[in-house]
Amino acid sequence: MFWTKAEKVIEQALVNNNLLPITTEACVINEAGIDYFGHVVTQNAERKFQSGTKQDNPFLPYEEEMFVADAGESHVCLLNKFPVISPHLLICSREFVPQTSPLELQDFCAWVMGFDSDNVLGFYNSGTMAGASQAHRHMQLVQSSIPLEHAIINHELPFKHHLYQFDSLSGERLYLCYLAGLRELGILDKNGLTNDNSLPSEQVCKPYNLLLTKHWMLMIPRSTNQINDVFANGINYSGRFLVKEPEQLAWLKEYGMMQFLKDCSQG
């Protein structure tokens, strides 16, 4: 329900120079029959670091020009001010909630509101070690193909993960699968659960990423957020990479895209 509204907000934000897309030079890198996407940022990425006053938490308060829609009572949908893929939407909690605390049912109920077509990819970075750049609770949405989807749904990923598949999305079902994944992957000890099978907000999760589509959810525990100054967040596990220099992309190609993902996760 957000995408049509987002188009109108993007149009106005571009006119007013409130939205600052990061253009990239993209290429396809084939490895073991998989066509990964590699993006090298161009000089206009400097606009991200020259975009006015610094703000510790850009989501509280958020820029009104980035507002797309309410996402239930506890969340809002905003534009990512510096998108590589546009539109890039953020589902943010209205009040501050740490990115490292366990997701709640209301987070999933707000997040699934953005999945009204088959080409939507959601991802979540739990903490800096999983690639989070902001400490305020936010889930992300883009419209994108998924180079690694075949490997994901056929259980071909060579690192620790859990996959949950669905006929249809609901916040309640996602939340139950999420709780199971936290326990099974050791991201949060089962003793952290309360009597009603919920999770206290003061709990802190070990770093992990979530990938979400209309048909599946993937949970990946993380071990590091970078190798050789190449950083990894949730969207990398869809098969898409962003680097600062062409030399980094050449190194990544030599190192191996899947090997990089494996070494950034847990075994």
CATH classification, class level: Alpha Beta
Helix content: 10-25%
Q: How many separate structural domains?
A: 1
Order of helices and strands: HEEEEEHEEHEHEEEEEHH
Main sheet strand line-up: 3-4-5-7-6-9-10-8
The parts where pLDDT drops under 50 for at least 5 residues are: none
Number of strands: 13
**How big is the Rg?**
18 Å
| Broad structural category | alpha+beta
The number of helical runs is 6
Mean residue pLDDT = 91
Q: What name goes with the CATH superfamily?
A: ATP adenylyltransferase
Strand content: 25-35%
Instruction: Give me the CATH architecture, please.
Output: 2-Layer Sandwich
Organism: Photobacterium frigidiphilum
Domain Ap4A phosphorylase 1/2 N-terminal: 2-158
GO molecular function, one term: ATP binding
Pfam family, one: Ap4A_phos_N
What does this protein look like?
Residues 2-158 form the Ap4A phosphorylase 1/2 N-terminal domain. The active site is at residue 138. This is Phosphorylase. With 267 residues, the chain is of the alpha+beta class. The protein has a single domain (2-46, 67-264), classed as HIT family, subunit A (2-Layer Sandwich), CATH 3.30.428.70. Helices cover 21% and strands 25% of the residues. It is built from 6 helices and 13 strands. The chain has an 8-stranded antiparallel sheet with strand order 3-4-5-7-6-9-10-8. A 3-stranded mixed sheet has the order 1-2-13. The protein is globular, with a radius of gyration of 18 Å. The mean pLDDT is 91.
